[in-house]
Amino acid sequence: MIHQTRRTLRRAASRGMTLLEIMIVIAILGMLASVIVVGVMNQFERAKINTTRLKVGSVESAIQQYNVSYGEFPSQGEGLRALLTPPDGGKPFLNEKSVPKDAWNNELMYFSPARKGGKPFEVVSKGPDGQEGSEDDIRAGN
Predict the structure, then answer these.
(1) Is the pLDDT of residue 3 over 70?
(2) What is the pLDDT of residues 99-140, one digit of tens each?
(3) What is the pLDDT of residues 17-52, one digit of tens each?
(4) How many CA atoms lie within 13 A of 1 on its CB side?
(5) Which residues of 18-57 are buried (b: 16+ CB within 10 A; e: fewer)?
């Protein structure tokens, strides 16, 4: 009888996992994967916002350099293209081939004078939603 009990215990131990146990493990792994994916995607979106904020700041610096060189800011009509092809044919103020774009591949917008704050100019990205004038628009300072 003792010999049969040992044999039964050995057989039970060597059977492996039941279908229910495997399904529980798979469910736990799925939940962990979804938490990780959401976290990574949030980081990716924040990185795009920060990249765009830096790009806007860089363009604003180029506009300030333009002002120092020519004594005025580019007009609304000239826009950011004036930074690529200065009026006297001088060296471009940006190392880009076309009007700078944000991380969502939308051209940055230039307003002269600025729409808010009484500044001489404003550079804005439409942000993640691609809509002008919404809450997620990105400026260098926000």
Answers:
(1) no
(2) 889 999 999 999 888 887 778 899 999 988 888 888 888 887
(3) 788 888 999 999 999 998 888 888 888 889 999 999
(4) 0
(5) eeeeeeeeeeeeeeeeeeeeeeeeeeeeeebbeebbebbe
Q: Which amino acid is at 54?
A: L
Q: What's the CATH number for 27-142?
A: 3.30.700.10
Question: How many Cβ atoms sit within 10 Å of the Cβ of residue 95?
Answer: 8
Q: Which residue, among 97, 74, 100, has the nearest Cα to 87 in the 3D structure?
A: 74
The count of other CB atoms within 10 Å of the CB of residue 142 is: 8
User: Residue 102's closest CA among 121, 83, 129, 120?
Assistant: 129
CA–CA separation, 60 and 42 (whole Å): 27
